[in-house]
Design a protein that fits this description.
The chain has 302 residues and is an alpha+beta fold. 45% of the residues lie in helices and 9% in strands. It has ten helices and seven strands. A hairpin with a 4-residue loop joins strand 6 and strand 7. The protein folds into two domains: 122 residues, no CATH class; 161 residues, no CATH class.
Length: 302
Amino acid sequence: MVDGISLHTASRKFCITQHAEWMQKYLPLQLVTGNDLNSRRMYSQERCRIFPRYRLAEDTLINLERFVPDAETAVSTSLQIAQEAGEVAYSELSAELAALENGSVVLAALREQLDSYLSFLVDIVQQPNKQIEPLPFRRVLQAAESNELWQMLSEKWKIRGPGYGWFPLSDDPAPEGALTFHQELWDARDGEEHLRNFLAAEHIERCFLLRELGPPNYELDVALVDAIYDGSEKFLFAGRDWVLYSSHESSLTLTGRLASFIRDVWPDADRLSYGGAFHTADLRGTWSIRHTRQNPEKVFGS
């Protein structure tokens, strides 16, 4: 039966699915890397019919995840919140993207996507026997929460906050006991599995994720945790005892209890330190440009 929680979950699922579907349709048309954020750039009508849809799905999802329903949340409350999540996203994106060369096409695509989402909400409420499988927990942090967590990271690990990278890319001193790896090495040695094992061993159920580019920042279920750079450098942690930093140059920095855990799994961990963004046979990486010339398909980072 649809209740406040399941309606909120269904709304999230719709946005996640729509974002993936429209992104898949758009990628073959994308002539440049990066998101469609700059209103001064020109796009074909075909592209303008697609990218506003995944932008709206993404922004609606962010708005949805600012709210966490509970057993006392009425269906009417979840419905109102879900509707407002889409309408606010639509209003903000309309203002941002209207100045594009094909602005009228963009606005029409946004309107169609919003109407599809709102129709879905009405339809799901009218299906009282609909079974909706739960999703892993994810919540957008409020600004005050993010600021408090950044302050904690600064005090404990000397992390400077949003807009700044960290060791080994910055000139910050190496954190005591830190390990650094290239993403390729991490993947080759099943780093994600070891990260999950660490979280299980520490009985950690949720982590915090702060993004170098700024909001949204998250509290999220460990099922959603990974070390992969996703377009914004990120700091993953669950308290003061450890941090995992993922950079745009394919570097990973592990500190505290996480670093100790990986040392137990990889006795040679301290001999595997990150050497640069470009591929090397030993998977440590290098900053030497000759590797780029010899292996042009192996360039990593920005």
